Amino acid sequence: MNNENYLLLLYGYYPAVDNQEGSYKLMKVVDERGMVDDQSLADALVNSLGKDLSSNSNQTHYDLNEDIYFKGLEELNKFAYKLMNDLDAPLICVLSAENYNTCMEKCSSLEEFKDLLLDSSNCLENVDYSKDKGLLSKIFN
Amino acid sequence: MSIETRLARDEDSVFPGENWFFYWKTSVSLWRTKLSELNGISKIIVPINWSFHSEMGEKFDFGEHKPETNLAQLSEVAKELGKEIIYFIPMTPAPFLQNGGLPHLLSKTISLNDDGLAQSQIGSNEELFKTYSLYDPKVFKAFSKFIVALGQYFYRDGIVNDVYGMKCGYFSKGRYHSFLEDSSREFHDAFSRYLDARMRDPENNFEKPTSAREEQILKHEFENLIMSLYKSSLEEGISANFEGQVNVNFLGASVHDSLKRLMNNNDIKKYSHEIFETVSKKMIVSSTLLPSHIKKGVFGHQLNQLMGENYINQMLQRNIEDDGYLGFSPLGFFEVYENSFNSNYEKDSWKNLSLISYLYENYRFNFFETEEESFAFNESSMIDNKIHFIQGSELNRTRYSDMLKLFMSGGQIILNRSGMDEGFCRKLEMFYTENSLKIEKVNYNCLITNIALDAGRLIIFEGFDLEELAVDIKKDFWLKLLSTFEILHLNINIPNEIQVSWSTRNISTAELNFEEIRRVDFYNISSYKKKIKVPHLKNFALLKIYDEVNVSISKRNQDVEVELLPEGHLAMDFGVYT
Question: Which residue of B has its CA nearest to A96?
Fold first, then answer.
């Protein structure tokens, strides 16, 4: 596995029920520092999707005690890309719970599992990321 | 992120912490040498690895083929070294074993957590452990067969060691979850069969659940039923050795923790906090999944101090309460009984009444949260002098009667009357009248009734009236109510990220000026310097300060100021007198 500080985003798909559209629920976002904090998620949510996240378009504040849903994968990826940029990560790997479980079933060692997770994810790369940032750019950017 | 390759030490995998011994990880020829290395340890916990004794789940090996499966020899070696083995048999999937401990052929469906993510754990040497569902009837049949064979083997080979059924679990959002909790297809199939069976029963006027809440309650009932089946199987199969159930919290075992550990992040602060939470829930911690290099410094010290042999003995309710016993036990002023399922929901729980947050702020880890089933009147509840918080809605006939017995024997009880069965309410009224008890009533945010009988106190309040009030008002309610009790506590203002544990012991003959000895341990788990002021208070005489690491102390007229650097800890002993 690439040993950089990448982000792993897990989501679940909830199929359509009673004329409602199916939706994608944000489950966990994790990097080497642990779970990504609520504030970062909320900021990325507003900055990537504004007020158009859900059918409740009047919603201006996302209470992260509640679950976060996306209408489609496009929205989810847009959010993921923004989050990766905000957190200055080189890569974000977006993976469904179903794929996560399949990877788990298939492999027998942790290394194998890590590799399989990356292979099965939709990985978005941060084109602006430079790991050799100078001191000043680290401070002012 | 840096790549660190740490060599796994043999000792770490054989002795994964807290005096546990993994017999299957070393050769039988080394058992004696290894066990003799445990200086000063007399009790060794040995979990039994089902799959190691039965690869296919059909035939069993107890030393016939693999010498390392010979538990009789293990018990004998320990005995010769003056040590005692205590066997733990997992009654749930075990997170530290391949396939959760299930024989390979029975490991068919991976367990899923509430979010639908596969239950998996990362071992101390970066092994990947997957947890498989126990809801397949074939698994239960095979488990029962194994336990019968194990029981016969123990009897035949004269193994007299105690056996405990181990419930393996983890903490998530302050609640203990057993690894039996599962939302896999296997679980749902079994749950559907359970619902169908209940509906087919003509004597059971049962209807399918109509709300998510109802379904949750039924699922919880079903889980408990399955747990009791596994436990009964163990109790019957190995009855001569069976001593009871022990609940173990495995640090780093939740899916949440596994994901973080997948990214090389071990949240030591969280683990440290969990040790205290585990103690307050009267459970045992196991750090077996954590790499040995993080079990150092203040965190390692906490593990050793809080999960020592005395504590394990107490949790296993082994006979140590002799008059001359001078070991420390966790200090607690309150026993909060809660239906473990309800505590997951805001409504009806002590959390919703802000009791838990009040106690946490003012008596941090000086209270125990236990399952309401464990409330019973016995000798120890008579003498423990704690205040018992009881939910009226959870009373049954036995618990109601035990509550009154406790009160009449001088016990102190705070009862939330809301949701209590009308029959019990009427009985309580009759109880006051028949015994001509003096009743005081006062309205302070809700109706409070105080009944006293000698040293006994029974305070009854209406929790429903409190629930909707602001948190500050609820906390003020508890402050006022608890100030009516005599609680002898050395209140210290504890900064955040300082963990503190209180323990108590009997006095020795050289300490006759005091009634008890209390010890407080401070641990700085933060990366910052922290100051604590320990006031000189009436009733508490500072006897000794010791175990000082990264600490500076200045004794002043009005207090003792302690400065704890990161990773600092110290202990203080106080003699308590009245």
Answer: B117
What pLDDT does residue A134 have?
A: 56
Give the C-alpha separation, B281 to B277, whole Å: 6
Location of structure tokens 């749930």: B92
Task: Give the integer Cα–Cα distance in Å for B559 and B569.
Answer: 18
| Mutation to test the A interface, candidates B1, B99, B132, most A Cβ within 10 Å | B1
For B519, the domain range is 498-576
Domain co-membership, B102 together with B210:
yes
For B525, residues 6+ apart whose C-beta sits below 8 A from its C-beta are B268, B269, B272, B298, B299, B497, B498, B499
Asked if B122 reaches chain A (Cβ–Cβ under 8 Å), the answer is yes
Interface contact A35, partner B, CB < 8 A:
yes
Whether the CB of B126 is below 8 Å from some CB of chain A: the reply is yes
CA separation for the pair B23, B204 (Å, rounded)? 48
Question: What confidence tens digit (pLDDT) does each residue in B163-206 have?
Answer: 999 999 999 887 899 999 999 999 999 999 999 999 888 887 88
Do B141 and B262 lie in one domain? The reply is yes
Residues B538 and B436 in one domain: no
**What is the tens place of the pLDDT at every residue in B447-503?**
999 999 888 999 999 999 998 899 999 999 999 999 999 899 998 888 888 999 999
Q: Which of B110, B116, B127 sits opposite A105 (nearest CB)?
A: B110
Q: How far is CA B14 from the centre of its chain?
A: 24
| Chain B CB contacts of A8 below 8 Å | 259, 262-263
Minimum-distance CB partner of A101 among B110, B256, B260: B110
Q: Would you kindly state where each structural domain of chain A is located, as residue ranges?
A: 7-140
- Residue B413: which of B421, B403, B423 has the closest Cα? B403
How far does the CA of residue A89 sit from the closest CA of chain B (Å)? Answer: 12
Q: Do A34 and B265 touch (CB under 8 A)?
A: yes
Listed residues B482, B515, B530: the one ending a domain: B482
Helix locations, B238-334, DSSP H? 255-262, 268-280, 297-306, 309-315
| pLDDT given for residue A132 in this prediction | 60
Identify whether residues B261 and B342 lie together within a single domain.
no
Chain B residue numbers touching A12 (CB-CB < 8 A)? 115-116
Which of A104, A107, A117, A121 is most worth mutating to test chain B (most B CB atoms within 10 A of its CB)? A104
Q: Cα separation of B359 and B572, whole Å?
A: 22
* ipTM confidence: 0.83
B172 in A contact zone (CB under 8 Å): no
Domain with residue B123: its CATH number is 3.20.20
A-chain residues near B117 (CB < 8 A): 10, 27, 97, 100-101
Confidence check: pLDDT of B331 > 50 = yes
Q: What is the mean pLDDT of residues B555-575?
A: 93
Tell me the per-residue pLDDT of B504-518, one tens digit each, with 9 for 90 and over: 998 998 889 999 999
- Residue B403 sits in the same domain as residue B359: yes
Q: Distance between CA B111 and CA A86 in Å, rounded?
A: 35
